[in-house]
Design goal:
Structural class: alpha/beta
CATH topology: Rossmann fold
CATH class: Alpha Beta
CATH superfamily: TPP-binding domain
Helix content: 25-40%
Number of strands: 9
Bound molecules: nicotinamide-adenine-dinucleotide, zinc ion
Radius of gyration: 19 Å
Oligomer: single chain
Order of helices and strands: HEHHHHEHEEEEHEHEEH
Length: 250
């Protein structure tokens, strides 16, 4: 058996013996669905870096420009379909007693592939939030009728209902995530560079409380040395090899 096959067998055993599993996903899991990650070259739009557009300052400086970038992203996501990695996680949830999926992604693909207990820590690309009254509406129009969109209740401009750089994640979302980490036996961390907080610290919290942490990524990340196993490869190829219907807990 080569090294990766041995690690996959090890990960399978650990997952099969786990009554409670938590999964943390990042942009990498959707890369095989054709949605660019932030760190890849194809993540650029009109030569802007995401860090220059996904901030409150950028939005208030030029709301239309930021909305045009979101239109570009909404157009890509609208055409994307879940890949085998997403479907494997839906299977894993179906066969696991206690399962929570925390995602940094805003693309909504985990819902489409069938996961149910999802915590979207960075919000959702298909929701618009009023900058004045806070009203949130679903909007799947690409292109939108008006940029920036206007609130139907108070007339102010809307913004994407996502968490930008320099913004805080709502406290209830953090609480739900930490509670799931506390309860889990095994944590899977998939396709995240481990640079953006607080997701970056979640694996550390799991390790500090004695959990088994398994990472899947194309490359080693700054956090890899902390984890029990790092499986190097595409999540769409590795994840379908990990779940099993032969669970051993009672
Ligand atoms: P990132 O772009 O910083 O890193 C992506 C990671 O995925 C990298 O470590 C890369 O090596 C890995 N990766 C790429 N392709 C992979 C594959 N096929 N299989 C396994 N791993 C793969 O993304 P991030 O760490 O999630 O954080 C950046 C922020 O970007 C997040 O806040 C997220 O909200 C946002 N984002 C979301 C989407 C989306 O919703 N699909 C897309 C781009 C960025
Ligand atoms: Zn409003």
């Amino acid at each position: 058996m080569d090294e990766l096959a041995e690690k996959i067998a090890d990960a399978r055993d650990r997952l099969a013996g786990a009554a409670s599993i938590i999964v943390l996903t990042g942009a990498g899991i959707s890369a095989e669905s054709g949605i660019p990650t932030f760190r890849g070259q194809e993540g650029l739009w009109q030569s802007f870096r995401p860090e220059e557009l996904a901030t409150p300052d950028a939005f208030w400086n030029d709301p239309k420009l930021v909305w045009e970038w979101y239109e570009w992203r909404r157009n890509i996501v609208k055409q994307a379909k879940p890949n085998p990695g997403h479907y494997a996680l839906a299977e894993l949830e179906a066969e696991t007693h206690n399962f929570t999926l925390i995602t940094q992604n805003i693309d909504g693909l985990h819902q489409i592939s069938g996961n149910r207990n999802i915590v979207e820590i960075h919000g959702n690309l298909w929701q618009v939030r009023c900058t004045k009254c806070g009203d949130i509406v679903e909007n799947h129009d690409v292109p939108m009728a008006e940029l920036p969109p206007r609130c139907q209740k108070c007339g102010e401009i809307g913004r994407p209902n996502v968490v930008w750089f320099n913004e805080v994640i709502p406290m209830d979302v953090i609480d739900r995530s930490l509670k799931a980490i506390e309860e889990c036996d095994v944590m899977l961390i998939i396709g995240t560079s481990g640079i953006v907080e607080p997701a970056a610290s979640m694996g550390l919290v799991a390790k500090q409380t004695g959990k088994c942490v398994i990472e899947i990524n194309l490359e080693m990340t700054p956090s890899s040395p902390l984890y029990d196993l790092t499986l190097l490869g595409k999540s769409g190829e590795i994840l379908p090899l990990l779940y099993t219907t032969e669970r051993t807990y009672s």
